[in-house]
Design a protein that fits this description.
Elements lengths: L7 E5 L6 H11 L4 E2 L3 E2 L14 E2 L2 H9 L3 E7 L2 E6 H9 L4 E4 L2 H10 L4 E6 L3 H11 L4 H16 L6 E4 L3 H11 L4
Parallel strand pairs: 1-7, 1-8, 2-7, 3-4, 8-9
Antiparallel strand pairs: 3-6, 5-6
Helix pairs in contact: 1-7
The protein binds adenosine-5'-diphosphate (ADP) and guanosine-5'-monophosphate (5GP).
């Protein structure tokens, strides 16, 4: 990689653990970090904006992106596809920006294979019960989606040892400080 290339950090963790909340705060405090906007076939939730939360695609559009090699990684999650557009990540790394990907486990594994120098962080809940409380408390998912997310969470939690670091999201402030330290921002 070029001498001026930025660092790639991946944050993974079960749905509802607080990834979105923590990443938002991290970006507010460190506006130089560039967060990748993913492509997805999932329908927008209330308040989500095209190009900011996600690029919302039809199944056909998403398949075309995969076919043309436009995604750095992609995976199925709870009945939908999600993927990281390749070009903007490569450009930001080339310009030397710190790049952040907030993606699920299978995607993190793919990125690990192609960016051996990247840093991968797993965000863990204080307990499974608390995770369920947070998913339900968020109030954005139907019961079926909640059940799929909880099933998937069990699998993801078993994989946490694969990561360079595990951060427990007990208190937001404490977890944020730990993330900053791990990313060399503190
Ligand atoms: P994810 O992006 O991992 O799916 P969210 O950021 O949407 O998770 O958080 C899920 C819910 O948990 C939200 O309602 C959020 O306000 C809440 N939450 C996040 N972090 C904490 C925390 N440390 N303590 C209590 N609630 C939290
Ligand atoms: P949500 O539907 O809650 O926004 O996201 C569901 C899961 O998809 C989360 O675990 C999130 O990290 C993951 N995700 C979001 N974007 C991507 C992506 O580009 N690639 C992969 N592999 N996972 C993603």
């Amino acid at each position: 990689m070029a001498a001026n290339s930025g660092r790639l950090t991946v944050i993974t963790g079960p749905s509802g653990v607080g990834k979105g909340t923590l990443v938002k705060q991290l970006l507010e405090r460190h506006p130089n970090i560039w967060l990748s906007v993913s492509a997805t076939t999932r329908a927008p939730r209330e308040g989500e904006m095209e190009g900011q939360s996600y690029f919302f695609h039809s199944r056909e559009q998403f398949d075309q992106l995969v076919k043309s090699g436009g995604l750095l990684e992609w995976a199925e999650f709870a009945g939908n596809s999600y993927g990281t557009p390749r070009q903007p990540v490569e450009e930001h790394l080339r310009y030397g920006s710190p790049v952040l990907l907030e993606i699920e486990l299978e995607g993190a594994r793919q990125v690990r294979r192609s960016f051996a120098n990247g840093f991968q962080i797993f965000l863990a809940p204080p307990s499974f019960e608390e995770l369920e409380r947070r998913i339900r408390g968020r109030g954005t998912d139907a019961e079926e989606a909640i059940q799929r997310r909880l099933q998937r969470a069990e699998l993801e939690l078993q994989a946490k040892e694969e990561f360079d670091a595990v951060v427990m999201n007990d208190s937001l402030e404490r977890a944020l400080a730990e993330l900053e330290e791990l990313m060399g921002l503190a």
